[in-house]
Amino acid sequence: MAAPSARSRRRADAERSIARIVSAARELLSSDPNATTDDIAQAAGVGRMTLYGHFRTRADLVEAAVADTLRAGEETLASVDLSGDARAAMTRLLASSWELVAESAALLAAAEGVLPAGRVRDLHAEPVRRMAELVGRGQEQGVFRTDLPNAWLVSLTHYILHGAANEVRQGRLARDVAADVVTKSIESALAGPVAS
Asked: Boundaries of each HTH tetR-type domain copy (predicted)?
């Protein structure tokens, strides 16, 4: 039986391997959604057996990379000041959200290619909750439209953000104007008819 210190050392080694693999997956999949597990193992400095010892399938690895990206992004989004006027708060939230989405567009494309339908959305639960609360507050303040359901307006912002990221990735929208295009599109969609 291994001594506790040997087990602790193996556990720490395993955690470091997992962290290197996930980091390599994030980096490679963010530039090429078709990066293979072999590419990722090589970039992480581990063998295929080690990679598959931690992640049984490519989908498991992609999901871990997306979850790690979202955890890091959550730190940024949680620090955005959402107080005061909902329109001004939305502008601040969209600026941070756009940067995160733009950086992870290829990774999300990889995820949508291998994860079950709806899983990518499930992984976005906290950003979706934050956006829903802000949209609801804007509806209560009378600055966001009330003729459409909150859930639809939140989905609409999600579609615009991810659609713009895809347009940038495909070269159909310049990255230097994309943030402005996204913000104007979402603000226009939210500021439609409001209750009188």
From this structure: 15-73
